[in-house]
Amino acid sequence: KSGFVTIIGRPNVGKSTFLNRVIGEKIAIISDKPQTTRNKIQCVYTGDDHQIVFLDTPGIHKPKNKLGQYMVSVSKDSLKEVDVILLLVDESLEMGPGDKYILDEIKDIKTHKILAINKIDKLKKDEVDQIVRNYEEFGVFDEIVPISAQLGSGVGYLIQAIKKLL
Ligand code: GDP
Ligand code: MG
């Protein structure tokens, strides 16, 4: 099995930390600089019987002008071409406007969607459960997985969840 996954999420939610964790070595990250080309390969995860190609999709943010609008539309098109959209959010109990904007943009796209709630090492278990329930209400995600990219918890499960959708 192999497939393409794009990671989206606000700045600082832990996208780079997650990729570093998945790959195990920081050297595997190709680049974290803003890119102009779409669907740039960030890294490739090779499991026993599957391969997951992680792509970077910059530009899913609230556009400020015509160029911004164009960039968002290009990014949205690229989301239709992948197997799984992985949306990363952080441990905030309430969804911020940045998260809401992204959710709105992706909810009508047919591509499978997984939500990873990152930084759960900062939370108590009942807080994690509450956030999961909040997101379940949107009915947008195939799977919701709490993780700590920093400590590695939940990351193996997340990889399995991605694999199931490839
Ligand atoms: P990006 O902008 O989405 O790529 O986010 P980064 O990967 O650069 O992470 C932003 C900050 O959050 C850094 O200071 C990370 O160390 C921190 N961070 C990332 N993942 C976790 C996590 O699972 N737990 C905690 N406590 N901090 C994290
Ligand atoms: Mg980053």
TrEMBL record:
Residues 147-149 are annotated as: G5. The keyword Cell membrane applies. Residues 56-59 are annotated as: G3. Keywords: Cell membrane, Cytoplasm, GTP-binding, Membrane, Nucleotide-binding, Ribosome biogenesis, RNA-binding, rRNA-binding. One of its GO terms (biological process) is ribosomal small subunit assembly. Residues 118-121 are annotated as: G4. Its main location: cytoplasm. One of its GO terms (molecular function) is GTP binding. Residues 35-39 are annotated as: G2. GTP binds at residues 9-16, 56-60, 118-121. Residues 9-16 are annotated as: G1. GO terms for cellular component: cytosol; plasma membrane. It is a peripheral membrane protein. It is found in: Cytoplasm; Cell membrane. Belongs to the TRAFAC class TrmE-Era-EngA-EngB-Septin-like GTPase superfamily. Era GTPase family. Monomer. An essential GTPase that binds both GDP and GTP, with rapid nucleotide exchange. Plays a role in 16S rRNA processing and 30S ribosomal subunit biogenesis and possibly also in cell cycle regulation and energy metabolism. This is GTPase Era. It comes from Gottschalkia purinilytica (Clostridium purinilyticum). The gene is era.
